[in-house]
Each structure stands twice: as C-alpha cells, then as structure tokens.
TrEMBL record:
<dbReference type="InterPro" id="IPR003413">
    <property type="entry name" value="T2SS_GspI_C"/>
</dbReference>
<dbReference type="Pfam" id="PF02501">
    <property type="entry name" value="T2SSI"/>
</dbReference>
<keyword id="KW-0997">Cell inner membrane</keyword>
<dbReference type="GO" id="GO:0015628">
    <property type="term" value="P:protein secretion by the type II secretion system"/>
</dbReference>
<comment type="function">
    <text>Component of the type II secretion system required for the energy-dependent secretion of extracellular factors such as proteases and toxins from the periplasm.</text>
</comment>
<comment type="subunit">
    <text>Type II secretion is composed of four main components: the outer membrane complex, the inner membrane complex, the cytoplasmic secretion ATPase and the periplasm-spanning pseudopilus.</text>
</comment>
<protein>
    <recommendedName>
        <fullName>Type II secretion system protein I</fullName>
    </recommendedName>
</protein>
<keyword id="KW-0488">Methylation</keyword>
<keyword id="KW-1003">Cell membrane</keyword>
<dbReference type="GO" id="GO:0015627">
    <property type="term" value="C:type II protein secretion system complex"/>
</dbReference>
<comment type="similarity">
    <text>Belongs to the GSP I family.</text>
</comment>
<feature type="domain" description="Type II secretion system protein GspI C-terminal">
    <location>
        <begin position="55"/>
        <end position="132"/>
    </location>
</feature>
<dbReference type="GO" id="GO:0005886">
    <property type="term" value="C:plasma membrane"/>
</dbReference>
<dbReference type="InterPro" id="IPR012902">
    <property type="entry name" value="N_methyl_site"/>
</dbReference>
<keyword id="KW-1133">Transmembrane helix</keyword>
<dbReference type="InterPro" id="IPR045584">
    <property type="entry name" value="Pilin-like"/>
</dbReference>
<keyword id="KW-0472">Membrane</keyword>
Length: 135
C-alpha cells in the first residue's frame, strides 16, 4: 500500500509541476510569432496607406489635366508651342505643361497636357493627350 501511495504522490506532484505555467522557451517562441505577425500587419498597412496617397495624387492630377483641356477647347484651336504655368486645386499647387503640335491634317493639332506636383516638377503625375480641330 505504501508503494501505491508514493507513486500516486509522485504522479500528483509531476502533474502539478506541469500545470504551473509556460516555460521560458514557450513564451519566447510565442513572442517571436506575435512579433512576426505584427511586422507583417504593419507593412501591409503602410503599403495600403502609400497606395491610397498615390491614387489620390493621380486622381487630382487627372482632374487638373482635364480642366486645362476643357479650357483649351473653349478658347478654340490653340497655337502651336509649349506653355507651362501653375494652378491650385484641392489646396495644392500643380505645374501644368501644355504642348500643342501640328498634325499632318490641316487645322488639326495634337494637344498633350502633363501635370506634376509643383514641389516635384520632374515627376509627372498625369498625362492627357487629345486631337483638336478648327471645326
């Protein structure tokens, strides 16, 4: 009977020791997994925000280009050449470059409008091209 009692007591002690908590190794592995997941989520959120800002810039620049094209159409056939100026839209300054080129058809010009952020004039955000005629 004494042997059974000792075995039962040893198995009870081992069970209690197992139920105490996690080992340091288990905690470190869990922290590593959670850190990796947090990094992935952070990178994804950063890329999403960056894409959203880029799409906003392209949309605004396209609206600026369309407005300039509408102005040119309202004023009739524009003269050949290149013209650059600035405008403001949505609280931002935009650099607009309008190029008017002659085509092989009489009284018809090709109009290309390039829009860039005024703070970064070398990076064209949107381009719009059209053919305009006299009639």
């Amino acid at each position: 009977m004494g042997l059974v009692c000792r075995c039962w007591r040893l198995s009870t002690l081992k069970a209690e020791q197992r139920l105490r908590g996690f080992t340091l190794l288990e905690v470190m592995i869990a922290l590593t997994i959670f850190a990796a997941i947090a990094i992935v989520i952070s990178d994804t959120a950063s890329q999403s925000a960056s894409s959203l800002i880029h799409l906003q810039d392209k949309t605004l620049a396209a609206m600026v280009a369309e407005n300039r094209m509408a102005e040119l159409r309202l004023n009739g056939l524009p003269p050949q050449g290149e013209r650059s100026d600035q405008t403001s839209m949505a609280g931002r300054d935009w650099l607009i470059t309008s190029k008017v080129e002659k085509t092989e058809f009489p009284d018809t010009h090709r109009v290309t409008i390039e829009v860039a952020d005024a703070s970064n004039k070398d990076a064209i955000v949107a381009t719009l091209a059209s053919i305009m005629g006299k009639h």
